[in-house]
Amino acid sequence: xxxxxxxxxxxxxxxxxxxxxxxxxxxxxxxxxxxxxxxxxxxxxxxxxxxxxxxxxxxxxxxxxxxxxxxxxxxxxxxxxxxxxxxxxxxxxxxxxxxxxxxxxxxxxxxxxxxxxxxxxxxxxxxxxxxxxxxxxxxxxxxxxxxxxxxxxxxxxxxxxxxxxxxxxxxxxxxxxxxxxxxxxxxxxxxxxxxxxxxxxxxxxxxxxxxxxxxxxxxxxxxxxxxxxxxxxxxxxxxxxxxxxxxxxxxxxxxxxxxxxxxxxxxxxxxxxxxxxxxxxxxxxxxxxxxxxxxxxxxxxxxxxxxxxxxxxxxxxxxxxxxxxxxxxxxxxx
Length: 334
Fold this sequence. Notes:
The protein is of the alpha/beta class. The protein has two domains: 3-146 and 300-333, Alpha-Beta Complex (Quinone Oxidoreductase, Chain A, domain 1), CATH 3.90.180.10; 151-277, NAD(P)-binding Rossmann-like Domain (Rossmann fold, 3-Layer(aba) Sandwich), CATH 3.40.50.720. The protein is built from ten helices and 15 strands. Strands 3, 4, 5, 6, 7, 14 and 15 form a seven-stranded mixed beta sheet that branches. A six-stranded parallel beta sheet has the order 10-9-8-11-12-13, with helices on both faces. Strand 9 (191-196), helix 6 and strand 10 form a beta-alpha-beta unit. Helix 4 crosses helix 5 and helix 4 (147-160) crosses helix 9 (283-294). The longest helix has 14 residues, at 147-160. The protein starts with a strand and ends with a strand.
């Protein structure tokens, strides 16, 4: 019998029988190949996700890859059999922000696969076909399960708008940071520095294109044109800003704990720094990530360290929160 993970309430989950939902008009049903776990899934399980950003009971899973099995009315039949990934945000498509392509700012309120709508920790997922991004027929679906976090970093890379020959840096060496290195490498920077807390990530950072690696406690010089912060702490944000030249561009992707000390507004004004932020990924960022992946410029596979069956959800959650440096990206397989 096929099963899905259901988080009934914070700290409580069960394996429940899964019945695929036939696609309605405009929808497609996907056979899930793999689903990733990130810190926000752990928040869902622990119950510390912000109010309004989760709805229990819930089938989690917002990072996934799969193959379209059935299409509903109004969806091209040619989509069946194609390998796909999918956007999580369920935007309204009619508000001003949606028309501007800023779907993560939809004014109709927050709805997202795996948080307020059924997610991919199940054998199948049925969702609006407009959210799907088609992959090449020979795509590695295990690696493609990481394209959701890659799309969030693609949004940061597009906002950073790094130019060939600029000096760029990444603060943070987790999944997001390693993707940021790959996106920045693709624009041919003169220098690509990675700053992280773990020296053991230096080799992987260099493999992805870094020209230098420093830990946060080492002396760092400034003068960088672009810095992408992907560590999720107030200290990381301040450290990232300190790396910039006057007028430099900073993009924040990490989410510190509520109430964290912010950037110094005097410093921002006097040095005329440009600061932008990312939460989720709009369609253009998804398309950018999928394009890079299809072209072989984005390699998620080395970030995956564990693949477990869906029935080992508890173990997977423990691994993600263990702090073990040997644990990278954890995938579940239905």
